[in-house]
Records
---
Amino acid sequence: MFPHLAECGLLEFDSQDTNFATGCKLKFTRTQNMAEIGIGILGGGYMGKAHAVAMSAVGAVFNTKLRPRLEMVCATSPNSAERYRQAYGFQRATDDWRVLVKDPKVEALIIAAPQSSHRAVAEAAFALGKPVFCEKPLGASLADSQAMTAAAQASGCVNMVGFNYIRTPASQFARQLIADGELGEITMFRGEHTEDFYADPKTPASWRTNGQSSGALGDLGSHMINGALALIGPITRVMAETETVHKLRPGGAVTNDDHAQMMCRFESGAMGQMYFSRIATGRKMGYAYEITGTKGALRFDQEDQNAVWLYRTYGPEATRGFTKILTGPAHPDYEPFCQGPGHGTGYQDQIIIEARDFLAAIETNTTIWPSFRDGLEVNRVIAAATASARDSSWQDINPF
């Protein structure tokens, strides 16, 4: 097994999930102590490339027993699919997702395409008994997310959602500190996911600004909401506002939100505030949070992703203060990438960690966080926040 995953809270077997053990039975090509698995990826763009690179590197980085084989890539046209095949090293290419899913040599699926495609592809893969890794947000709507989670549960197949930012060694360390009680009782969480890729109103409209995407709240907010759930625990109610600042862009009208703010209450009693924006001028990767507890506090910013600032309430008053802790081999999932403290890990490394977890889940037929069920919890919070913004009222999470 993988004890380091359990220590980091990533390995999560649900003994009440009676369907899970009856799931897909994959036959891998075994060579000595290793086995191959054919990987199919839907989408060859930004995230498709990241997952292809991760699957190519994960065996060397983590010495996984299950070794990925880049079997097939699917894109929107034959030309782009073939281009991705050559660039990333896939065996074959197609422009039909049904061909991808049904191919017997494609033994596990990665969905790295707009969320409007997620449900159909995932349901088809589960029907054939194939594990699925789906990029966030899980579904294009709460109904889609519920259906996808139900299909995953009924199939018993391994399923994961791509929340990569919470996997940095620094955030895994923060999660450990909180779980170990180092900060005492958590009283306040403040988080943001802010970027400026749409800060310029002259930036053309795209699928991200129309009905294929759930806006800043669903696109960026899902990452920070997932982070808040992982760090602090379940959210019970929310109060939110959303706004479209640039309503018209070259190429069309904008039909979803540019930024959103949200207050929340956690099940633990802690207060929370979050802000999500794709028009935050000057912010490039503002996945950041501050956590206050009765015995300490910490803060983290993804733009300085190899450091955590930690405050502890002991020692002489004159020497107290936030201490910058640089990540190194003593922190979770750092040493496989580098043996030198302070040298740091990067964005692609987070995707490689995800690949390791997905392969470990398949090999051991075990649920590894975050599953589709965890992705659904994020979408429930987003649905409640959307209703809150519409009705200008506090919304409980339970009805969603």
Note: The first helix runs from residue 3 to 7.
---
Amino acid sequence: MAIIGKLVKAGIDITAKFQSVEDSPQSSQENQLRELLNQAKNTAFGKYYGFEEILKSTDLISAFRKEVPIFNYEEMHEQWWARQERLEDITWPGRPDFFARSSGTTGKSSKRIPITNEFMATMQSVGSSLINSLREFNFPETLFESEVLMLSSSSTLDKNEQGFEEGEISGINVSNFPDWYDIFYRPGKEIAAIKDWDERVEAIAEQAPDWNIGAIAGIPSWVLLMLQRIIARHQLNNIHEIWPNFQVFASGGVAFETYREDFEAICKTPITILDTYLASEGFIAYTSKPDTMAMKLALNHGYFFEFIPFDKRGINESGELLSDPLVFGINEVEVGEEYVLLLSSCAGAWRYTIGDVIRFESLNPPQIKITGRTKFFLNVVGSQLSEEKMDKAILELAEVNGTSINEYMVAAVKNENGDYIHQWVLVSDVASDGLAEKLDELLKSANKNYSVARSQALKDISVKVISKDQYTDYLAQNNKKGGQTKTPKVMNADKMKSLLEFIDRA
């Protein structure tokens, strides 16, 4: 295997050198938009919004913005995507072979995102760029001799009445892996096809000693549970006793920082964390350089991006888009500023709001961090708490108490007097005494808007602590266990009531 490691590493070096020269971000994005419009100009969407005429414009991007409105999922689905199950050439040529059921955290039910062949190719292309970027990290050849464990959702897809296959995007990706992936891909297609999460993880734990894992990809919460189960089953002190070449974790789906301490606890040697922005709507960005968790935007891979300022120029006080928000291109954004992301893609999404808020960490190359979801903006009584601010306070609370708090949920609810309070539920083994007071202090010191709200309409905060087992039981009750599942950090009052009732019954 040593010679294979040398060859793979040498191949990555050669490929990366050929790809080292790129167009400017603005040129890349204009080229991507032009190609998307050309391919979709004869679709129903393209004809309705005059793609032919837009393509003749001397200012392509401005014309595109003028003619095509911004869409959220409900609007895109009801007006366009729902027709694709019966008709061809709606928002993209032909009909999609798959629909990705988004396991995201917003909405009352799963979204259904069309997945085209061209879209599948873009995800593989971005994945290849990520692999080529590994040369920047100077990993040893042992990494390239080892195997990759991808903890996806089940690759067993459902067929609807129209014959389309449906599943979560990670399961769709795995189901379409070519046979030669079996050389390095684990747990393999047979185990990946197991629908039940617990059965799948038990099968992984059973076969773990037979594998030489160098890299793992998945959502931190579920990867952590899997690794802990492997350690318990084989009575290990740490995961490196069974996988000494484990060096890389490609994290995605949620912020990693609240899991860092628990990952360090089960590893004998440090591992490199790469962040990835892989959603049902696309493989949007990935960490491409060492010593940072910022992610390079995939500007040359079939996506066109736009950016709405996450302030009064783009959103209202509830975090919802204005009817006519200011919209920037890649050449107009600023380092340190937050934006709501818009995406146009070869899946037939056009000026589509994914629901994520990103911040630019650099412009050359454009690198971003996800700072939260628009729906994770808690501002019912003017507290203006973003997901990033809440994460920071929870990390500080965990440090003060000498523990870890991986997950949390919060909602603005009314107490028995009809006043608003913030109800928090923390997933941890920490004692609950004094937590509310300390969390309140941390949030006040970090956010002046929250401090003002606490002196006025926000009358109190309440904190409940539940165990990891209770949390996973709650997810299981709601069919949200395993794979790519993410739990909403900010809940509405009804969701929080349901969670509290579950806790009381348990």
Note: The chain is about 35% helix and 20% strand.
